[in-house]
Amino acid sequence: MKLRLVLFVALLTLGAWLGQSMMKGSGYVLLSYGSWVVETSIWVGLILILSLAVVSYLAIHLLVAALQAEDRLRQWRAERGAHKAMRKTVQGLLSLAEGNWKRAQRLLVSGAHGETRLINYIAAARAAQQNGDYDRCDELLAEAANTTKGAELAVSLQQAQLQLERHQYEQCLATCLRIRKQFPKHQYANKMLLKAYMALEDWQAVVDLLPQLIKHRLILGKAAAQLELKAYSALIEHIVKGRSAQSKDAAAIMKIWRQVPKAVMEHKDLSRLLMALCAT
Question: Three-class SS of residue 32?
Fold first, then answer.
């Protein structure tokens, strides 16, 4: 209240001073530019200058407001698009969980936006896989790899997993070996590599891979012991069945003998196989 009163008094004082100044003399202003000459009193000149300043200020203010409105509109559209994409992603993931593969794939692909594109394409690839469209699945995985820098490992692991589910064991084997070459410190690919070797009945490769799996605790406790027994038993049985009386390979027998862990060798089923192997 006091501030308003002070401003009111100041404006009255300024008005009174301007009135007195105008009564004392109007002054004289002459502006000349080329053939143009403008004559006016100093007060009219001041009013024109002030008017020009006010108009310029308003014009600049309106221009800035228009530019800000355009930026806000662009930001609103971007936020609206992101919100719409997120809604489609959520609906797509729900459809994926419900087993509605076609709808899930459509929503996830159309909802691929911004930083979630990698997740969308990988999930859409799984939907295509479940729908039996393997070609489209591979295309979506390729798109996923191109969306995010550094996503090669995640996409390759997903590809290997999907190849296992399709029973494409040779392709899965190639994918896992490529992952091991590119990311030698990453061990999860070895679990899928193990499944591919077992499906292809490459028991020597399984035996060679087992120590690394056990070392990195990818197989633990009883499961590790059972897998060791299964792998060595299958390898020995394969050698027994594949040998003939004319082709005795003592070096191969000794190699397998040295590989078998003591705990596994004591198992009765494996002991019986070893005895059969030595008897031939």
Answer: strand
Residue 41 inside a domain? The answer is no
Q: In sequence order, what are the beta bridge partners of 39?
A: 30
> Model confidence over 108-144: pLDDT tens digits?
999 888 778 899 999 999 999 999 999 999 999 999 9
In order of 12, 21, 60, 63, 151, the CA distances from 49 in angstroms are: 22, 18, 16, 21, 63
- Domain of 111 in residue numbering reads as 73-148
Residue 143 belongs to a domain: yes
Confidence of residue 1 (pLDDT cuts 50, 70, 90): low
Rounded Cα distance between 157 and 163, Å, is 10
| 177-190 burial code (b ≥16 CB/10 A, e <16) | eebeeeeeeeebbb
Provide mean pLDDT across the span 241-258: 58
In single-letter form, the type of residue at position 260 comes to V
Asked if residue 244 has pLDDT above 60, the reply is no
246: number of Cβ within 10 Å? 5
The DSSP secondary structure of 206-233, one letter per residue, reads HHHHHHHHHHTTSS-HHHHHHHHHHHHH
Grade residue 33 by pLDDT with cuts at 50, 70 and 90.
low
Q: Is the pTM of this model over 0.70?
A: no
Q: In the chain, how long is the greatest CA-to-CA distance?
A: 136
Residue 119 lies in a domain: yes
| Euclidean distance between CA atoms 97 and 273, whole angstroms | 47
SS3 148: coil
